[in-house]
């Protein structure tokens, strides 16, 4: 029997790349199980050889980079915003690019509640095609406008409420007519849909598949942050949801982001497991319940439920990563008694409150990092949260550099069909 023909050295990188993606297209998009795949007019390559080539390409492809931002939490977005500002600063310094942005170094972003607003601010393009906000500007936006888009409870914990047209005007001015399709990278932002009685995930990938799932970003931000039912419709008016706070449905969206990547073979063809991921999950601090009064109020119970759900997701994700959780998965979270913070009661105290929040967030970053341990709860490690972010920035830079020399793209992000860009209506904030 004649030996099966094999790939020889005359096959250059372009031909190998073509072969690899022809297999992927046939296998994942069309479900072909034919043991013989014809990749060119003159070469028929056996499956064993192709499998080896795919493994080599998979190694060369690198890791998919995921950013996840919690919704509910003690700081309600401020700690996550401060973490992002520090991470972006590290990326600029390590890359040597003073204009480096968070969106340049991540392939997917997921955010819930205030985290969803941060995701939209950092991954929506402006007129020049670059993100309309860098991380410091997004943090400043959240602090300066929190009284328009969130309200304080008597306990000093912020709730995400869009009560008036003031918030709508603010978001309209910020995002213009931009929709999910316009975002620079895959974006995932959850809410709870009363009409279907189930969580609803706003997704760029779904928006590109059908217009019925494309929503304006200003509506997405309202939906993921509302504490009361708000009716939303897709751009083509075909899909209707009655949305409420994404923190109720999915306070920590890390697991949703990982599942999205592992099951999206069109955009992430070489990602088969958690070992192919590089994930950072940003919490928002946890409320401490101390003292002798061990009877929590209804407000306390809601907070406990949201923060407990985030911790459970962290535990589950850590278990899924197993032995590679310390190098492929980083959780930035802090334990601090936010309910003990006293804010001035004056209506003109917004600036003072902002300074207090910034100070608390800086304290959170200097706390020792807390890691989930398989079947053993949590442990405090030697590195601080800021040191963990510094290290993770280095890993993102390494991945970015690796892709420059790879002949195989790690991601194949779907592009929106050509149309008049709505991003031209966006307002670019002044530099911070």
UniProtKB/TrEMBL annotation:
InterPro entries: Acyl_Trfase/lysoPLipase, PNPLA_dom. GO terms for biological process: lipid catabolic process. Residues 67-258 form the PNPLA domain. Gene3D superfamilies: Cytosolic phospholipase A2 catalytic domain. It is an enzyme of class 3 (hydrolase). Its EC number is 3.1.1.-. Pfam families: Patatin (PF01734). Keywords: Hydrolase, Lipid degradation, Lipid metabolism. A motif (DGA/G) lies at residues 245-247. GO terms for molecular function: hydrolase activity. The nitrogen atoms of the two glycine residues in the GGXR motif define the oxyanion hole, and stabilize the oxyanion that forms during the nucleophilic attack by the catalytic serine during substrate cleavage. Lipolytic acyl hydrolase (LAH). Belongs to the patatin family. This is Patatin. It comes from Tetracentron sinense. The lineage of its organism: Eukaryota, Viridiplantae, Streptophyta, Embryophyta, Tracheophyta.
């Amino acid at each position: 029997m004649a030996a099966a023909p094999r790939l020889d050295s005359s096959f250059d990188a372009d031909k190998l790349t073509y072969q690899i993606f022809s297999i992927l297209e046939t296998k994942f998009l069309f479900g072909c199980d034919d043991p013989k795949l014809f990749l060119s007019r003159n070469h028929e390559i056996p499956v064993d050889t192709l499998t080896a080539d795919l493994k080599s390409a998979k190694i060369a492809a690198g890791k998919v980079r995921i950013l996840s931002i919690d919704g509910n939490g003690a700081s309600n977005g401020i700690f996550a915003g401060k973490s992002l500002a520090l991470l972006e600063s590290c990326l600029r310094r390590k890359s040597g690019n003073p204009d480096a942005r968070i969106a340049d170094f991540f392939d997917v972003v997921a955010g819930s509640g205030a985290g969803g607003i941060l995701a939209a601010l950092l991954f929506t393009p402006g007129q020049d095609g670059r993100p309309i906000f860098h991380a410091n500007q997004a943090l400043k936006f959240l602090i300066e406008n929190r009284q328009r888009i969130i309200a304080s409870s008597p306990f000093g914990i912020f709730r995400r409420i869009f009560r008036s047209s003031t918030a709508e005007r603010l978001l309209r001015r910020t995002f213009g007519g931009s929709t999910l399709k316009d975002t620079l990278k895959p974006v995932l932002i959850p809410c709870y849909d009363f009409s279907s009685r189930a969580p609803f995930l706003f997704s760029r990938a779904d928006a590109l598949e059908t217009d019925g799932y494309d929503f304006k970003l200003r509506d997405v931000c309202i939906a993921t942050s509302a504490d009361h039912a708000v009716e939303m419709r897709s751009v083509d008016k075909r899909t209707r949801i009655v949305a409420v706070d994404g923190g109720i449905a999915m306070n920590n969206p890390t697991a949703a982001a990982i599942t999205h990547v592992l099951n999206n073979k069109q955009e992430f063809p070489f990602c088969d497991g958690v070992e192919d991921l590089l994930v950072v999950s940003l919490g928002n601090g946890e409320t401490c319940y101390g003292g002798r009064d061990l009877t929590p109020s209804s407000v306390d119970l809601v907070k406990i439920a949201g923060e407990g759900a985030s911790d459970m997701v962290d535990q589950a994700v850590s278990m899924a990563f197993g032995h590679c959780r310390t190098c492929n998965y980083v959780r930035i979270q802090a334990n601090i008694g936010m309910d003990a913070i006293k804010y001035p009661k004056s209506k003109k105290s917004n600036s003072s409150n902002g300074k207090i929040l910034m100070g608390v967030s800086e304290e959170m970053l200097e706390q020792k990092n807390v890691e989930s341990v398989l079947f053993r709860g949590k442990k405090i490690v030697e590195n601080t949260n800021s040191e963990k972010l510094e290290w993770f920035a280095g890993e993102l830079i390494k991945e970015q550099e690796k892709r420059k020399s790879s002949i195989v793209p790690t991601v194949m992000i779907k592009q929106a069909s050509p149309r008049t860009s709505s991003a031209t209506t966006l307002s670019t904030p002044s530099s911070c």
